[in-house]
Amino acid sequence: MLLQLQYDAQILHNTGAAFLRGNTPEEWFREMNEWQIPLTGLSGFLLPEHKNTEEAGGLLVVFKNQLPSPEKIRHPYTVINGNCFIPVNARITPAISPAEMKDLLIWHRQILHPAIGFVGFEIRDEISLSVLVNAGKQLTRSWDHAHPGMPPIARLTNIGITQVATTANISELLGNGDAPRPLYDLPQEDGTILSGLPPDENPDTSGQQASFFRESIIGKFLSALKLFSFGGRTASSERSGGRSVRGGAGGSGGSGSSYVQRGLEKMMQDLQAKETVN
């Protein structure tokens, strides 16, 4: 008698195992990780790709005390007669009695897969999931003096603008923080510095009228002209009748020089008077 599987959407048996597709432990553990249950104590059976090869084509994991959520199991299987696994939405045809099934299921465990077919397992074929994990060879090398490496670069979290303090005025920004100095406190041409007081509060200059020409080039020029004697003799002089006679070109030159002197003095007086008015 040939047993076959028949799919029936109306049938939903209790879940007792799960079939994991793939041929590597990495694929199987990736799917088992989605179950979110402890894997301790679980066992499984390796299934071939087909009946004519011994290459692994899947893993049947048998649950014991704890089951994952039904939506996390891709290919759930149920167990009948305590030792035969079939899909939860299938049934065996033709229908057989429990006595006939006991005579047919002679293996320790057997599975009826829709594509692979009927596969039987002995007790020694059952494996623990821990044998699928290879921890590798233990290294006896000491890593106490290993360099930890470069620290990771800090991640950019935000970008902002630094605000400039608004308490600083323009003179502090332009003068490196030096307080501004008044004009009358600046050094003079000869290197001297005034008392630091305004002209109207300075006792040395309080009695003098502020003059623009006092320290200017024109003022110095006019002061020099006042000290220069334009009436000096340039030739021999004689006294006659209580008069001083200037001979030669010196006489006419002296009168011309006096005229120039008077003109310059008059100009200086006018400039000083205009300055006083201002």
Automatic annotation (TrEMBL):
<feature type="region of interest" description="Disordered">
    <location>
        <begin position="233"/>
        <end position="259"/>
    </location>
</feature>
<feature type="region of interest" description="Disordered">
    <location>
        <begin position="188"/>
        <end position="208"/>
    </location>
</feature>
<dbReference type="Pfam" id="PF19919">
    <property type="entry name" value="bpX3"/>
</dbReference>
<feature type="domain" description="MoxR-vWA-beta-propeller ternary system">
    <location>
        <begin position="3"/>
        <end position="165"/>
    </location>
</feature>
<protein>
    <recommendedName>
        <fullName>MoxR-vWA-beta-propeller ternary system domain-containing protein</fullName>
    </recommendedName>
</protein>
<dbReference type="InterPro" id="IPR045551">
    <property type="entry name" value="bpX3"/>
</dbReference>
<feature type="compositionally biased region" description="Gly residues">
    <location>
        <begin position="244"/>
        <end position="256"/>
    </location>
</feature>
